[in-house]
Amino acid sequence: MEYIIIARWLIMYAAIFLFGLPIAARLLPMTSSRGVGLAVPIGLLLISFPAYWVGHLPGGWGLPALLAGTVVLVVSAGLAIIDFSKLRNEQKRIQIRFTQAMRPSRRAISDTVVVFVASFAFIILIRAFDPAVIPIGGEKFLDFGLLKTLSRSSSLPPTDFWFAGEPVKYYYGGHLTTILLGWLTETPPRFAYNIALAGYYATLVTAAFEVSGAIAEANGHARRVGGTIGAFFTGIAGNLLTAARLTVASLPASLERQATGIIAQQTGDSAQNINTALQSFSYWDASRVIDGTINEFPLFAWLNGDLHAHMLSTQTLLLGVGIGYAYYRTSRYKKRRRQILVFGAIPLTAAWQAVQNTWGFPSIIALGGLAILVAPTHPVTLLPWSEYPREAPRTNSHIDRIYYEIIRIGWTVGITLICGAIAVGFAAPFLFETATGGGQRTIEFLAPTMRSSIAGLLLVHGAFIIGILGYLYTQLSDQLSADSQSRARVVTGSILLVGGFAVLTWWLNLPVIIITLPVLVAALIGARITHTVGYEAVLIIGGAGLITLVEIMYLNEQAGPGRMNTVFKTYAQVWVLWAAAMGIAIPGLRRAQTPPNSSSSPSSTEQLSSEPDTSSSPTATVTATTQADSPTSIGENLQSAELFGSITQSIISVVIACLIISTSMYGVLAIGGHLAAGPPPGGPTLDATEFVDRAHPTEAVAIDWIDNRRGQPTLLEAPGTTRYHDDSRARATYSWYGNPAASLTGVPTVAGWNHEVGYRGQAAYRDRVSDVDLMYTSNASTRATLFDKYNIRYIWVGPGEQARYDNISFSMNAVSVAHHSGNVTIYAVDQSDFPS
Question: Per-residue DSSP letters for 298-310?
Fold first, then answer.
């Protein structure tokens, strides 16, 4: 076990944490924790984005980029510590000190450190038992290849190791950060792969602890309770598939058959497959609940062990949530600060998200827009020339209220578009170079037959739906119970809404709206009308909006059939948003009954309107109605209320317990099975390539030989596809027989896995595959021409090549055997021997 390397990484994260701390405190000075849990995401962003920009200069990737990122982080931390308000005009000296108003409590720091270290150690344990970057069941060959090509490149974007001579056409920001951290700790990619996985997981869980805890505390709940619940649902909880299967399997035989039939009808799966799944557990099944889609959640993703973009970008998504919360909590009179957040911090964070995971780029912009919408301050005040407008409608009429909200939404949309345009500018090198390619991508509307069933949606999102809807009900019911007119309108509206749901679902064949529309409407009403729901509305609306969106349209691309990749990359974000929201929802379900206009509600204290009329409060109503009552009736009423409240709280406690137990079942079985399988034969290790010597000893030495070549010479391997030529390989993509040398060394090959179809287009990839086939099978003249075209330096002849081409011979000038070991022969090509 590589304990010294682990210790170096923990020391590095501690340094990033300390430098990010004053910046986080500047971001969230209004919270008791001063944003301490976002210090590491902030530090990683400030190291990575400047390094990314400098890396585009000739020779800029490497030490110059690392120095640039480090300097930006250190200087930013220094500026954050400076107390400009204490500038002494007489002596022109700047006071450099961490003011009391910005100093996080020791308790907040200790909580954050404990959560981070515990999460980090958890994944270190998991990865030490299963460290291998095997090609099956994920994108580990792609992810490790990105690390290796970045470690070999001298400028950005890095060379595509599956398409030699061309730059990578994939979002690689998280892998870039991993290499930077590896350089800081002198860790080679084979160890950095798994340790970085632990670091990203710990950063995500800690950020969830911070976001949930801060919002819960503002709502009058304990920060530790809210943060712990948010961290649990983010990093430990799974969806409801495992609990549902265990429940069905425990039924009597006759009921089990009936339940299996119903499930088969709802999911489109066969009863035989469902029966087989009931008899055994596989950690994989919970990620493939809805037919034709991938429904990953963090625990599955980190157990599976890909170092993939949808995982590495999650902490940046929560950083965007934190910036939005900072805006939400900022006073209307601090205009410059709000402008910096909206036109500086949010675009910068979204731009880096584009490089890490382009699917998350619009999400951060949209979350920023939602923060602007639900914040007490009118969005028009963000504009330089604006004055403070009315913060409420002129009258209480419905027409004025609707008109006011429409105008507010219009200004929000406009400002959000400006924010997005700035973000595009920050991310221009990626969006207009790396993200563009020959792959065909079109936005398509989803056919009704492709849409998710209610059963599938509830299995994936059911725990969140129960917790969030229950919370929204409690937040709205207290306010409405005080006003009989409002209550009557809500009852009438609810009846109409249910009828509308039924008609709309039947007409559009869109089952998802039965689940998401109530959430969207209730969260928006609570945030903008009754003011009983605070910033958590942004998390709730954001998640519900994404779920609804992928049931209406999808990005049609070669990255997967139909909408598979769209749901995959979108649901990963939904889980993080709604998991953080559960940290506010669960304590909200357990809260003591308080008057709806009580100052304990942050959303009421942060509003800028005048004090509410106490005559309409429940307290005033109770006083007025009970003055004429006898002491006996008062006592009976109090006893009845206490009994009802006790029963209600008991029911809520049972529901919460069921939610936690049901979502824990996957983790118990998956983690237990993972550890029960035992570590590699040599003992626990974080070496991602340890499996090569053990599982592929006849090729291991040759791979090491290629890995020891300097720079990025072009390596010829059989293409990563079995198409376009007779091929006896069962498969190439997601197989050891598809480009193991290029994927494990970063030395580029001419035509790698058929992922390149999505990046470059079918024609470009097919042409390269044809050229590769000719280089292995054609005459010397054709070979020489193609060797020169692709600047081939080495030729790999291993089991995959023998399976595709049978007898391979390179008896020609300029080609000689450079290495032979096991069942691999590597030829060297001397380009100088070819005629110019």
Answer: HHHHHHHT---HH
Cα 554 to the center of its chain, rounded Å: 18
CA dihedral 643, 645, 650, 652 (to 10 degrees): 160
pLDDT-derived band at 498, boundaries 50, 70, 90: low
Tell me what the mean pLDDT of segment 164-184 comes to: 95
How far, in Å, are 120, 162, 710, 716, 814 from residue 831 at the CA level?
A: 48, 21, 17, 14, 7
**Cα–Cα distance between 141 and 753 in angstroms, integer?**
10
Q: How many residues would you count in the chain?
A: 836
pLDDT at 609 over 50: no
φ, ψ of residue 84 to 5 degrees: the values are -65, -25
Could you tell me the two tokens for 348? 């910068």
List the single range of 200-204, 607-611, 779-783, 827-831 with lowest mean pLDDT: 607-611
Q: Which of 62-76, 398-412, 712-726 is most confident?
A: 62-76
Q: Strands, DSSP E only, in 662-756? A: 714-716
Are 234 and 299 spatial neighbours (Cβ–Cβ below 8 Å)? no
Burial 545-554 (b: 16+ CB within 10 A, else e): bbbbebbeeb
278 near 259, Cβ under 8 Å? no
* Distance set, CA 695 to CA 91, 231, 622 (Å): 70, 37, 75
Question: b vs e for 573-609, b when ≥16 Cβ sit within 10 Å of the residue's Cβ?
Answer: bbbbbbbbbbbbbbbbbebeeebbbeeebbbbebeee
CA distance 430 to 437: 12
Helix (H) or strand (E) holding 375: none
Which pLDDT band holds residue 601 (cuts at 50, 70, 90)?
Answer: very low
Alpha carbon 488 to its chain centroid, in Å, reads: 41
What's the gap between Cα 29 and its chain centre? 26
- Cα dist from 180 to 44, 46, 64, 156, 435, whole Å: 10, 12, 11, 13, 22
How would residue 620 be classed by pLDDT, with cut points 50, 70 and 90?
Answer: very low
Distance CA 697, CA 728 (A): 22
- The tokens for 386 are 């604006």
Q: Would you place residue 85 in the very low, low, confident or very high pLDDT band (cuts 50, 70, 90)?
A: low
Residue-wise pLDDT for 544-558, tens only, equals: 999 999 999 888 887
pTM (two decimals): 0.90
Measured between alpha carbons, how far is 346 from 232 in angstroms, rounded to an integer? 27
Q: What are residue 768's phi and psi, to 5 degrees?
A: -65, -40
- Alpha carbons 253 and 261: distance in angstroms, whole number: 12
Residue 615, CA distances (Å) to 482, 532, 599, 810 in order = 10, 18, 16, 94
Summarised one tens digit per residue, pLDDT across range 120-136 is 999 999 999 999 999 99
Give 505 or 376, the one with higher predicted confidence: 376
Cβ pair 73, 43 in contact under 8 A? yes
**Model confidence pLDDT, tens digit, residues 417-438:** 999 999 999 999 898 887 776 6
End-to-end distance of the chain based on CA atoms, in angstroms? 52
Q: Considering only 287-296, 584-593, 710-719, which range has the smallest mean pLDDT?
A: 584-593
Which of 752-778 are b and which e, b meaning 16 or more Cβ less than 10 Å from the residue's Cβ? bbbbbbbbbbeebbbebbebbbebbbe
Give me the amino acid identity at 78.
Answer: G
Which residues, other chains included, contact 581 with Cβ-Cβ below 8 Å and sequence gap of 6+?
A: 212, 230, 464, 468, 536, 539, 540, 543
Q: What six digits make up the tokens of 501?
A: 């749901």
Strands 792-797 and 714-716, by their bridges, are parallel
Residue 133 CA to residue 685 CA, distance in Å, equals 13
What element of type H or E holds 520? Answer: helix 512-528
